[in-house]
Amino acid sequence: MSEQAQYIGRFAPSPTGPLHLGSLVAAMASYLDARLHGGRWLVRIEDVDGDRNVAGADQHILASLQRCGMRWDGEVTWQSRRTALYQAALEQLGALVYPCACSRKEIADSQLSLTGKQAQSQIYPGTCRHGLAPGRVARALRLRVPCGAEPLRVLGFTDRWQGWLSQDLCDEVGDFVVKRADGFWAYQLAVVVDDGAQGVTDIVRGADLIDSTPRQLYLQHLLDLPQPSYLHVPVVSNEAGEKLSKQTGAQAFDNGAPVEQLLNSALLPAARLLGLELAANSVEQFWRVAVPAWGRVVERASQKAQQ
């Protein structure tokens, strides 16, 4: 946990549909960690990607959290109402940001001439790094990452669950998008700006976002923002081994059944996926026993990561 005086955590779902079991696991982990440390738990609706938003999904998400007994602190925020903050951050990044005319297909085609690690990924090859070719029209805005012997090229952090992790931004990521071709703000920039503006000290989320963390550390450095503590919990997979998500057919865990039914159909299964073996007869009792149990689970995970 962060050494700052007040713990501030958050859960930041995208309103692309109702919460499923995988998203409940992430919400539960962040909520338990905040309550374990006597901190504040914020909810932020990450609706900056307007094309994927589903009407009414944000309210369904908030209602489901409340029905599960999770109470947030302060007001809920929506990214779509904070675009002025992202524009200010973009201006602060200055000359490190440049226009890019490349489509995803062009970037994929460029990998055909590469070998090794770069050939196996969608790492941007730097085509527009030194200016647009004649006749090319800017699509997205990208942020230069350090290469060569530049400082901050390799960034690492100690994850409270996973241990020490690091990434070479030049070889493993490449210059990344901060404003997309469709005009929407990119996740990496928006999440860093929001966490900084809201004073978030501790980020607890799914391990599918580990790969994004070094990019966020880089942005935090450039924007002179404090670095939060991180804890990435294992993601929930379906029977095919795919991450449980709306794209892989994950179903909503809250179908409007009586609240107490959520205890057995959602809360206890989500807790088991986090390593919590609990017995409870009500939602209220569930949270009373889950908070101290979470502390023991995190301690074991941390000890294992240090081995």
From TrEMBL:
Name of this protein: Glutamyl-Q tRNA(Asp) synthetase
Motif ('HIGH' region): 13-23
Binding site for Zn(2+): C100, C102, Y124, C128
Keyword Translocase tagged: no
Entry note: cofactor: Binds 1 zinc ion per subunit.
Keyword Aminoacyl-tRNA synthetase: yes
Protein's job: Catalyzes the tRNA-independent activation of glutamate in presence of ATP and the subsequent transfer of glutamate onto a tRNA(Asp). Glutamate is transferred on the 2-amino-5-(4,5-dihydroxy-2-cyclopenten-1-yl) moiety of the queuosine in the wobble position of the QUC anticodon.
EC number: 6.1.1.-
Cofactor(s) in the UniProt record: Zn(2+)
UniProt-listed Pfam families: tRNA-synt_1c
PANTHER family: GLUTAMATE--TRNA LIGASE, GLUTAMYL-Q TRNA(ASP) SYNTHETASE
Family: Belongs to the class-I aminoacyl-tRNA synthetase family. GluQ subfamily.
Binding-site positions, L-glutamate: R10, F11, A12, P13, S14, E46, Y187, R205
A GO cellular component entry from the record: cytosol
The entry's keywords: Aminoacyl-tRNA synthetase, ATP-binding, Ligase, Metal-binding, Nucleotide-binding, Protein biosynthesis, Zinc
